[in-house]
Write a structure and sequence with these properties.
Elements: H1 8-17, H2 20-30, H3 42-45, H4 49-55, H5 60-69, H6 74-89, E1 119-125, E2 128-134, H7 143-152, H8 154-161
Helix pairs in contact: 4-6, 6-8
């Protein structure tokens, strides 16, 4: 009997393409463990914009080149980067307050910096008061993701705020 050699990477690649019967056959031959991903938690896998793109099945360099070719300004590119990043953290969804008034979203906040594009105002007069909060609609589904995004990707946020 001949021994056949195949790399683990090639085996896993073929497993991912196989139908249910093919997967069962490969699991019987090689064991289930080899096909079980050794995946870090999502936030630990996402350290760069490129990582977010990989998670979303896209190529970061291709996306940025496309946006630049379309004439997008640096703040527009940063917005598109952040929107993709929020969508990945939210499992493919964006929190939509326009159509779902019961939706809850968490946004990273940054204290005012020079040239900030965010606007916050508060007016009190007599017995009436108004409060306006105009800013990002890049909402995460939980506080931890909002903090992670706001803390670890300050360069992208700063580019976004420099409109």
């Amino acid at each position: 009997m001949e021994t056949m050699k195949i790399s683990t990477e090639a085996l896993i690649k073929e497993y991912s393409k196989a139908d249910k019967k093919g997967k069962l056959m490969l699991e019987r031959i090689h064991g289930k463990e080899i096909f079980m991903p050794k995946i870090l938690p999502l936030r630990e896998r996402l350290t760069t914009f490129e990582d977010f793109c990989k998670e979303d099945g896209k190529n970061a360099k291709t996306l940025i080149a496309k946006w630049k070719k379309n004439g997008d300004t640096p703040d527009e590119i940063a917005y598109k980067q952040l929107k993709l990043m929020v969508r990945v953290l939210n499992g493919g969804r964006l929190v939509d307050l326009a159509t779902n008034i019961k939706a809850i979203g968490y946004a990273p906040y940054h204290y005012g910096t020079s040239g900030s594009g965010f606007v916050f105002s508060n007016t009190n007069s007599g017995n009436t008061s108004t409060y306006t909060c105009v800013g990002s609609r890049l909402l995460c589904e939980n506080d931890a993701d909002a903090r992670f995004l706001g803390t670890n990707f300050k360069d992208i946020w700063e580019a976004f705020k420099r409109a």
